[in-house]
Amino acid sequence: MRLAFLLTCFLTLCTTAPSDAAPGAATSWPAGRTGMFAKRWVDAFAAGEDSMRAFLTTDMAAASLAERNVAARIVRYREMHDSYGRFQLEQVVKSEARVLTVKLLDAQAKSYDAVFTLEPQPPFKLKSVTLRTRKAGGHSLFGGFHH
Question: What is the DSSP secondary structure assignment for residue 23, as one 8-state letter?
Answer without folding.
Answer: T
